[in-house]
Amino acid sequence: MNRDKKLKTLDVDQHLFVAEATKSVLEEIEDVLFMDIALDVKQCKGKIVEHEPDLVILDYFAPGLKDMEIIEHIKWNYPATQIVIFTGEDITKLFNGLVKLEVDSILSKEYNAKTFKTWWNVYWIINR
Asked: Based on C-alpha coordinates, what's the Rg of the chain?
């Protein structure tokens, strides 16, 4: 990933309201170029092809997600694309699988916008 350009970002979330809120926060961050929202796995696959994002923010429990299929699909077909799991669900039982698939980060939806931006700043510095 070229660190001198804005990070092209795709948000995948079954809840349009949450996706729009995430989009609003991301659009306030200078280093992000928000590309699109996908509401399910089928849309996610299509929008990855269309936009070639550097980062996919993925609600693990989005419709159509079977086990870790979409994560495997992204990692296999787009190895440079980073994946951040952004979910309000308990993923304790899935944690080892997410680590094994080399998910880049996991973030709870329970955080507010300020915490999200703080996380982003740390994430961006580490991955620059």
From this structure: 13
| 82 close to 106: Cβ distance less than 8 angstroms | no
Element (H, E) at 17: helix 16-27
Domains of the chain: 7-127 (3.40.50.2300)
Tell me the whole-structure pTM to 2 decimals.
0.81
Nearest to 53 by CA among 82, 28, 75: 82
Residue 22: pLDDT above 60? yes
Residue 27 has a CB neighbour count (10 Å cut-off) of 12
- 30, amino acid identity: E
Task: Give the separation between CA 119 and CA 113, rounded to whole angstroms.
Answer: 10
